[in-house]
Amino acid sequence: MPNSTRASSSSVKDAVAQRTKATVDLPFDRVVEVVNPPRSAAYGPLVQVLLAFQAGPVEPPELTGLRAEAEILPLKVAKFDLTWELTEAFDGDGAPAGVTGHLEYAEDLFDRETARALVDELGLILRVIAGEPDRPIHDLPCGRTAFAENSGDL
User: Fold this and answer.
1) How many angstroms separate the Cα of 111 from the Cα of each of 1, 57, 82, 106, 143?
2) How far apart are CA 18 and CA 132, in angstroms?
3) What is the pLDDT of residue 115?
4) Residue range 110-151, pLDDT digits in tens
5) DSSP-assigned letter for residue 152
6) pLDDT band at residue 154, thresholds of 50, 70 and 90?
7) Is the N or C terminus of the chain more exposed, i.e. has fewer CB atoms within 10 Å?
8) 133-143 pLDDT, tens digit each
9) What is the average pLDDT across 72-87?
10) How far apart are CA 100 and CA 6, in angstroms?
11) DSSP letter for each residue of 15-71
12) How many angstroms separate the CA atoms of 83 and 48, rounded?
């Protein structure tokens, strides 16, 4: 299930930041109130897909006499239908070295091939966005074929 996709972390982060500035101050409870989604005990009330982005390096805890590092542990059951966890990567000198990612998915809804295809699609989209960070999101190509045509040799 885990997968790593690398793109320039600074260009992806800048592009995402530019496109989301308008919605930063929108309270989540207001969105829920306006959207007024139907409720069901069959699934989570609103969040079925979660995207988490860790900006900046993940510092391991300092433990006297011990070396510690972060590790993603597999869960027996997915908390959401899809959980995307993206983390900025850095080289030994602290310079940006891309973005790594992990996808957790509900196996009763997605098979491994579908999950892999979703990871590949997201990687392709992020590379196109990173290559054209000033392009408005509504001008981005739609569909895999369009993205592949706009991504050159990616």
Assistant:
1) 10, 32, 12, 9, 21
2) 12
3) 92
4) 999 999 999 988 888 888 888 888 888 777 766 555 555 655
5) T
6) very low
7) C
8) 888 877 776 65
9) 81
10) 6
11) HHHHHHGGGTT--HHHHHHHH-PPP-TTS-SS-SEEEEEE-S--PPPPBTTB-----
12) 8
pLDDT band at 89 (very low <50, low <70, confident <90, very high): confident
Q: How many CA atoms lie within 13 A of 14 on its CB side?
A: 14
Q: What angle (nearest 5°) sits at the alpha carbon of residue 115, between those of residues 111 and 120?
A: 145
Question: Sorting pLDDT into bands at 50, 70 and 90, what band is 109?
Answer: confident
Could you tell me which residues come within 8 angstroms of residue 73 by beta carbon, excluding any fewer than 6 positions away?
none
Rounded Cα gap, residues 101 and 84, in angstroms: 7
Structure tokens at 62: 């300092």
The token duo for 70 is 């972060």
